[in-house]
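Hi, here's the filled form for the chain we discussed.

Project: internal
Contact: R.S.
Residues: 97
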Amino acid sequence: MNSSNVQSKNLSQLILEKLEILKNVLLKKDKPFLTIDEASEYIGLSKNTIYRYVSMNIINHYKLQGRKLYFRIHDLDDFILNEKNKIFNTREIEKRQ
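And the returned structure, exactly as it came back:
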């Protein structure tokens, strides 16, 4: 097998994996709450990072009886779209000054 076939196969596998993630995310849009695993997949951060953000009260979350963490999709979207997370391009930076 030549390197072109290997690269094509790797790319195909990567595309299939990403499509599976998208499918799972879209199916979860109807759920009111996501678990830590689902939230990690949804926003593309590791569970450890999410746990750290939860402990720092950066991401809104819910705990049932002080145990399992749950997240509303709306809260995760707000976290991602938070103005503090935005990277400004050069033109926007110049306008702000």
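Let me know if anything looks off before we file it.
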